[in-house]
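[Archive record]
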Amino acid sequence: MNEPTGKPATYEDLCALPPNVMGEILDGVLYTQPRGQRCPQAHAVSVLIRRLYRPFYREIDGPGGWWVYFKCPFELPGSPEVVPRLVGWRRERLPHLPSDESIKVVPDWVAEVLSPATRDYNLRIKRPFYAKHGIPWMWIVDPETRVLVASRLEHGRWFEVGTWREDDRARIAPFDAIELDLSDLWFPPKD
């Protein structure tokens, strides 16, 4: 991962990265990491998006009212392309998704799925960045330790609202209208 170089990075710097490298510009600093994810991370992401999509995006067996996406970029001042692993907006705050420009509305929820390559970056760089920009909810999913931690932003600081492990069943805000079976998140999948 790159550290600050002194001059603000640009969107062109992102476009110039080789195909096997992913980058994000957070507050003018370009951070890079290897592109791709391992099976445990891909599995956790796939399960979460499936569990949240129907009740919150499609309004099937749930309240609806959300846009929930995998790696959907958004733009903030000094940060032309921020890409959380999962991201969501309440439709009351973002009634329509733009089709030809960046989303410039701060998300209501982000989730990062830790891997050995992204653990430090997600915890040390992105977590404080999300707090600084006022994202109200953040989930950290750790396939290695089989833990999901949910945090709520209060007065610019993260407040941990819960930690769930292994095979817990839980209602986790801001998606607490449904119960999640956490045993489904972990790799290898249960039979």
About this structure: The helical segments are 11-15, 39-57, 119-132.
